[in-house]
Amino acid sequence: MIVVTGASGQLGRLVVQELKQRVPAEQIVAAARTLEKAADLGVEVREADYDRPETIKSALQGATKVLLVSGADAHRAQQHAAVVDAAKEAGAALVYTSAPKAGTTEAALAADHKTTEEYIKASGVTYTILRANWYHENYAQSITMAPQLGAVYGAAGDGRIASAARADYAAGAAAVLAGEGHEGKVYELSGDTAWTLAELAAEIAAVTGKEIAYQNLPKDDYAGVLAGAGIPGPYAEILADVDVNISRGWLADTPGTLRELIGRPTQTIGEYVRSVLG
User: Minimal CA–CA distance to 51: which of 71, 30, 29?
Assistant: First the structure.
């Protein structure tokens, strides 16, 4: 039995849908904090609240494999540890959605992921770690606003971003969960090609017919732009730090691992831009 945590979230839902293409639905459990939000997935639904370890233990009973979809709360490393402990107690193999180069990067966003990876490896649980590059969807707001603003803003300079669609990462996770031979592996997952924010601006311009430029800003100025767009201050600082690390090559690698797992090319950033702008 495969249990997918965070199954009512954007990634978790897609993983469950992908798994249903690979294994019988009765072998899948969607674990979610709010049962009603996962009720439409067509599989068994169990309560699993990261802040209530007793629900996690119950949700993982009978599991052979568990997907730990990383949380978003400030104390997520502690939440993740509870899932790791429950998976070990259940005798299940654990698959974890981590951040790119989590073991070595200085990016603040990856700090909790590094802590979780270390905890997983020390726990003795059978594991696979999926280090996902940036999502195309992280740029949805930039893409929709660029025609009005006449610009894409960032602090990444000429740094390249090997992003992929959320659906591609979900397909990769499903392939690992439904497959064999992934134990003890740490996979760096990315899109097939890496692009710059200037190239993103050019893609938007090509679709809209408007002049769109990339405006590179100092880190603090970009954090201010993000905060002005409604992103909470502390998270705006983390996202600005992401761009600085992009400029240093953090998200540039294209090892092709995700393409191999899913058996097809990943969606390009140009295809994603066209899907957003119609």
Answer: 71
* Structure confidence at residue 72 as a pLDDT band (50, 70, 90): confident
Q: What residues form DSSP beta bridges with 187? A: 130
Six-digit token pair at 222? Answer: 């970009």
CB within 8 A of 171, min separation 6: which ones? 14, 18, 261, 262
Q: How many residues does the chain have?
A: 278
Dist CA 176 CA 15 (whole Å): 11
3-state helix, strand, coil in the chain (%, to 5): 50, 15, 35
Separation of alpha carbons 63 and 44, rounded Å: 13
Delineate the domains of the chain, giving CATH numbers in brackets.
2-132 (3.40.50.720), 136-161+192-253+265-277 (3.90.25.10)
pLDDT for 122 = 98
Q: How far apart are CA 39 and CA 47, in angstroms?
A: 11
Task: Identify the sign of the CA torsion 97, 267, 18, 50.
Answer: positive
pLDDT in tens, 215-235: 999 999 999 999 998 999 899
8 A C-beta contact, residue 130 and residue 176: yes
- What are residue 253's phi and psi, to 5 degrees? -75, 145
Spatial CA neighbour of 207 closest among 126, 264, 146, 122: 146
- Cα–Cα distance list, 14 to 230, 251, 278 (Å): 27, 23, 22
Q: Residue 53 in contact with residue 84, Cβ under 8 Å?
A: no
- What's the whole-model pTM score? 0.97
